[in-house]
Amino acid sequence: QVQLVESGGGLVQAGGSLRLSCAPSGLTFSMYDMGWFRQAPGKEREFVAAISRSGGSTTFADSVKGRFTISRDSAKNTVYLQMNSLKPEDTAVYYCAAAFNRPAVVTSTIAFWGQGTQVTVSS
Length: 123
Prior knowledge:
- By secondary structure, the chain is mainly β.
- The chain is about 0% helix and about 50% strand.
- It is built from no helices and 11 strands.
- The strands form 2 sheets. Strands 2, 4, 5, 6, 9, 10 and 11 form a 7-stranded mixed beta sheet that branches. A 4-stranded antiparallel beta sheet has the order 1-3-8-7, with no helix packed on it.
């Protein structure tokens, strides 16, 4: 059974930082591109960031470029989303996502989802 377990969400003031972690189990981590999506109340789920299977390629939504970074640790089977200079508009539930042999940049390519972790940025 595949599980993507996220952690690291919480409440932070604008300008602050958070680091999200996602530890997949039940799948071969090296065969999956990984990504992060988010969904704010009343809005559709949107792409945030993705990293290739090798970790050599990353992609970001324009709204987070220069503020967020994504990385993966193959030894720990974990993917991270470092979020800096957070803004109130970053408030959302953040979802970890795994895509098999394709970029994790659109919802249609995602094979597995995490349960989501809440990030709230106060002004």
